[in-house]
Amino acid sequence: MSDSTETYEGYCVKCKEKRSYQGTVRISASRRRMARGTCGVCGVCGSIINRILGKA
Hints:
Elements lengths: L5 E7 L4 E11 L4 E7 L9 E8 L1
Antiparallel strand pairs: 1-2, 2-3, 3-4
């Protein structure tokens, strides 16, 4: 699994809209792959978007 960033689409809770974002793939405690990144619109305030990709 590489640590390169890719473009994903996820729901930003702060903007209340689907946004495209640059994210890295991580594995959660429940062994699920998750893409995690910051929102391009409100990301300055530290808004983080997570998207579950599936089991590892």
